Amino acid sequence: MASLEVFTQFTEDAIAQEDRVCQRPSCAAKIRKGEPCHYIATVVHGQPGRFVCGACYQRYQRKAATGVRPSGVRLAGRHSPDLQDIRQSVNAAQRSSSIQPPPVVATSYGRNALAGPKVVIPSSWSQNSRPQPVYAAPIPQRQSHSAIHAAPVPGYSMNHAQYDAQRDHWAKKAYSTPPAETISLELSAVREGGNKRKGGRGIGFGNICEGMKDVDARIDAPGLVALARDTIGPKIEAFAPGFLWRQDKFIVRDGAWVDLATHPENVPYFYSQCLHPSRKGSRAMAFKTRHFVVSVVVPMAQWNDYESWLDKIEEEELNRRRCPASPVVTSLFHTVSTVAASSEVSSSRCHRPASPVVTSLFHTVSTVAPSSEVSSKRLFHSRTQSTSSSLPSSPPHKKPAPNFCSPDRERLRDVLQSGGTADLDNENIHFFPIPKRPLSEILDKPQYHAFCLDPEACLNGQLTIDISSDNMLGAGGFKTAHPGWLTLFAAPESGLGSCPREKVACKTTFSQDLPSRKQQGPWKLFREANVLYWAGPLLEFAYNYIDHCIARSTDPPPFTIPRLRFVEAGLALSYSQAPSDSNQKSKGCPPRAGFLLEELIGDDDNRNFMKYIHNMDCNPLLDEDEFGYDIAAFLACTQHIQYVKTGGLAFISDYQGDAEILTDPQVLTHPSVNQGKDTFGDGNIENEVSMFEKKHVCNDYCTWSGFGLARLPAVLEEPEASQ
Fold first, then answer.
1. 212 phi and psi angles, rounded to 5 deg
2. Distance CA 644, CA 652 (A)
3. Which terminus of the chain is less hemmed in, N or C, by CB atoms within 10 Å?
4. Do 461 and 429 touch, CB atoms closer than 8 A?
5. Is 706:557 a contact under the CB 8 Å cutoff?
6. Among candidate residues 436, 506, 503, 434, the one with its CA nearest the CA of residue 277
7. Euclidean distance between the first and the last CA atom of the chain, given in angstroms as a whole number
8. DSSP state letters, 449-510
9. What are phi and psi of 299, to 5 degrees?
């Protein structure tokens, strides 16, 4: 069997081209130029691999969980062709004639010998338009000139000239990782139409909609057009298989109804809309994935052709189902009229009742004719005149009873509870955004020491909340989170509420309508807002120290620095009678309810929400082999920095969120700061600050020499028991 080798790069690239650091976190050894440097891919989709040293590469080879592949070593006992003999024979053939060289005879060692490469002569050397390939092998002995000319024409084809370019192309494909900057698309099929007064631009049909994730953010307009047509085109064909759709006439438009065919190629279409300032007031732009809508529009003329075709099909179906009056009925009517006339003459003369034959014929006609009459009435919605209208009608035929099945009682109860509790709550609110200020500015200006409800910063708007229990985002110790939509009447240029009907996470306290919670709920949320107000500057303070140390260090750190931030948030207050002026809220009109509004985290399926550090611990909550441990270890290092650089007075805890945005933090302070007061809410556990130096475990981030942090004891040593 073939041996196995680790998923890695080609052999010629396994040497370091410059000095670098081993990217395995537990090693971080320095790899000098010319030493072995191996690339190891990861099993997590979308994450880049690592360049490791030779020792770590040997460790991955011995690791049971490492993915392997066959090495492609040839089996023993198989003989490969002698390439030197092939090269000599080809050169000899080319030297003999530059226009029509003698061909090279292809032989082999035997029936079981390994076949060699395909060798084909260029078209310019031969009059044959389609050269025949042969398998080349070493020539065991000289052949006569006549024997040489009798063999098939050998040589090279034009495809051989593309070998270098193709090799470079597929080598790059083999090493390339999925694009880190991706977007998600919603592809749908619509037709032209809609109410222009209400902003309608298209009408969906057939419920044709397809979502796509991990699309390259740098895709251009022609690429979007091809992607949309390849995805939605077959679904439109399946919607009406018999109709001849002209897909070349379909128009692909974005959410703003812009025709993508009018934009140039090789220019990213959605990429510029994904760039946002990395932080407020900064010119540096950061990429943030977004969701876009792309529609395949069927023109009105083609849709009219489809409706005409559909009407024609329905009319043909109605004509096929229509049942005309049977010839038997016509014959019976003629017989009845003849017999009845003679019967009337006889009865008038003899004063006798009608003949039984007439009565029988009337009964037969009344039985046959109504079915035709009813069918005609159902199809054309008009009653046709018939001789049988005056005849007695027979009882109608019974229709077959449809299948009936009672629903499952437990399932019905669950659905009734879910559907019956669905509700939306609309609130007219005063919105106070939480500002982001540097720690130095907070320390210098007394008015910035805490978050306050500044009337000048107040924005009026409307908040819609989905208060159903099934759609609840989560529940905490004293509050719940629901999806909501925020619309500010005077929207700011950036931040929360800059877009109409922006989807937000709406946090509110339990049972705010109860008398005991009516006054307490909004002010509990105010303390939560104040914690967010302080957490942002403390985290930015740690990042400033990290950037300062990296800039002063001669060697770069052997790790990457994760860049995270806290959510954009604000406090929304709703009043029983909304005052016209925001200054009136201090004149005896208490807020009826309060809501802490935050930008939504994890709205897409590809974003994982997790808790990195617990409130009652100063070490990562995740294990080393779990996803997100690197971020948790880095956040623990920020706690170390905040503790040391604030003189042991404060640091952030209860880190949670995804790989970019954090939420719901807690600021922990030293007992000397609290002095028995309720500082930063009930989650401020002051004992964690006083015991930080004994409980914190330094990781690879803390121990980097560039940060200059003293290694803290890993565990608290217990005193020995006295003998």
1. -135, 135
2. 13
3. C
4. yes
5. yes
6. 436
7. 65
8. SS----GGG-EEEEEEEE--STT--EE-SSEEEEEEEEEETT--SSSTTSSTTEEEEEEEET
9. -60, 155
Residue with tokens 């981030």: 701
Backbone angles phi, psi at 431, to 5 degrees: -105, 130
Taking residue 274's Cβ as centre, other Cβ atoms within 10 Å add up to 19
3-state SS assignment for residue 516? helix
Q: What is the predicted pLDDT for the residue at 637?
A: 95
Pairing of strands 650-653, 666-669: antiparallel
Q: Count how many Cα atoms sit within 13 Å of the Cα of residue 325 in the half-sphere of its side chain.
A: 19
Give the separation between CA 486 and CA 632, rounded to whole angstroms: 32
Give the strand pairing for 479-488 and 474-475: antiparallel
Q: What is the DSSP letter of 287?
A: E
The backbone torsions φ and ψ at residue 611, rounded to the nearest 5 degrees and listed phi first, read -105, 125
**Per-residue pLDDT reduced to its tens digit, 44-90:** 666 788 888 988 888 888 876 666 555 444 444 455 677 777 888 88
Mean pLDDT for back-to-back runs of 10 residues, the chain (723 residues): 48 75 88 88 75 88 66 51 78 64 49 49 49 45 43 62 83 67 93 66 87 91 94 92 91 91 91 86 85 93 92 86 54 46 43 45 43 39 40 49 73 70 73 92 90 88 84 79 89 86 86 44 82 93 93 90 93 69 54 87 65 88 88 94 91 91 91 82 84 90 91 54 38
At 219, is the secondary structure helix, strand, or coil?
coil
Nearest Cα residue to 232 out of 288, 298, 166, 289? 298
Using one digit for the tens of pLDDT, what is the confidence trace for 309-357? Answer: 999 988 888 888 765 544 444 444 454 444 444 444 444 444 444 444 4
For residue 484, the number of C-alpha atoms closer than 13 Å in the C-beta half-sphere is 26
How far apart, in whole angstroms, are the C-alpha atoms of residue 162 and residue 164? 6
Q: Reduced to 3 states, what is the DSSP secondary structure of residue 405?
A: coil
SS (H, E, C) 120-131: CCCHHHCCCCCC
> Residue 62 has which token pair?
């011995």
